Amino acid sequence: MYVGTLSFDLLLGDVHSLKEKRSVVRPIVAELQRRYAVSVAETGNQNLHRRAEIGLAVVSGEWDHLTDVLDRCERLVAARPEVDLLSVRRRFHSDED
Hints:
Elements: E1 2-12, H1 18-36, E2 39-44, E3 51-60, H2 63-78, E4 83-94
Antiparallel strand pairs: 1-3, 1-4, 2-3
């Protein structure tokens, strides 16, 4: 069993309130869940209206499948025009850890 996580640090575009921030972050979270069946949530910077941290986790029995899903998720977030992807932290764990 393999577990992979991604942590995205995002700079949001023309956002001036937490309500506007939610309208940008929620669709990203929902699309990741819908397209890739991953566990994902806003995990940090909740009180900052121009920054967001999104955390994502995937469990798989195959290493290749795990890395493929993480790569696709990263590309999806990086392609969103309303956010700038400042950094991505990727971690892997196995049942042998």
